[in-house]
Amino acid sequence: MTNRAYSAELAQLAGLLADRTRATFCLALLDGRAWTAGELAAYAQVAPSTASEHLNQLTEGGLLVERRQGRHRYVQLASPLVAELLETLTAHLDPPAVQPRGLRAANASAALARGRTCYDHLAGRLGVAVTDAMTGRGLLDQEGGFALTDAGRAWLTDDLGIEPAALRAGRRPSARGCLDWTERRQHLAGVAGARLCDRLLDRHWIRRIGTGRAVRLTPDGATALHDLLGLDGHAAGLI
Amino acid sequence: MTNRAYSAELAQLAGLLADRTRATFCLALLDGRAWTAGELAAYAQVAPSTASEHLNQLTEGGLLVERRQGRHRYVQLASPLVAELLETLTAHLDPPAVQPRGLRAANASAALARGRTCYDHLAGRLGVAVTDAMTGRGLLDQEGGFALTDAGRAWLTDDLGIEPAALRAGRRPSARGCLDWTERRQHLAGVAGARLCDRLLDRHWIRRIGTGRAVRLTPDGATALHDLLGLDGHAAGLI
DNA sequence: GCGACGCTTCGGCGGCCACCGAAACGTGCC
DNA sequence: GGCACGTTTCGGTGGCCGCCGAAGCGTCGC
Question: What's the CA–C1' distance between A50 and D20, in Å?
Answer without folding.
Answer: 8
